[in-house]
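Bit of a strange request maybe. I'm writing a small parser for structure token strings and I need a real example to test against, not something I typed by hand. Could someone generate the tokens for this chain?
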Amino acid sequence: MAPTSPPDRNWTLIEGWVSISSNIVLFFLKLWVGLITGSVALTADAYHTLTDSISSAIVIFSGWLSRKPADEKHPFGHGRSDLICSVIIGVMLVLIGFEFLLKSVEQIKSGVGVDYGKAAIIVTIFSILVKELMAQFAFWADRRSENSILKADGWHHRTDALSSVLILFGILCGSFAEWIDGVLGVLVSLMIFYASYEILRDSVSRLIGETPDRDLIKKIDLIIDDMNLDVRPHHFHLHRYGDHIELTFHLTMDAGLTLDEAHEHAHRIERTLRDKLGIEATIHMEPEGHT
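Reply from user aminoacidic:
Good idea to test on real output. This should exercise your parser:
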């Protein structure tokens, strides 16, 4: 459903800076534990966390870029920079998952177990708590601002937290199975692939163009019905540009109307949708019985 007020993009910048600082701390902690234990899963997870900082830098950049007003070359503004950055994060997750998968397979083939120790347990539990808190904050900020890039970054944090949960399981069970470190690495990589699929599916769909959801169409129909015009809207297409939303649809009306009367109907509807829903509508007028 279209927002009735502009999203607060300050949350994009706040979430981005919190994410960068937290991820840098976690990266060094995970890398230290991974190097002293020789764990492929922990070391790869450290670099996974480092890429979160890169993703967050993209979040900040997109938050700055999307606030730029419309100009001659970009008449709809720069709002879709959020979606472009979401695609970048999704592709990054694919690359991370593939590298993680290769390293995990190598670990399984080696047949060498890992002695984790107490430091690995403490750091991993700390990482789980911090990353889940960061994910919850990103999701909350997304609900406040309706900004898809925050949802994408939240899923990035969530996958890191879940991968740490699996690694903690491996740490606790590592003494019973030498291959557990590699197997858990494979499972984590599959989770990363799924998260990237979710992010890319949503972002690419919006970039291409989408059909408005049923609730929005129902709201538009009710608004037009309340205007007491003998018209029928159909064939909706929605285009989101961050804060700016464009809607195009056809409007069937009495064939006996003059051009001025038909234009007045369409103009009233466009103005009402702008005032009540914050949507810029473009209407194609059709006479009744037109095929």
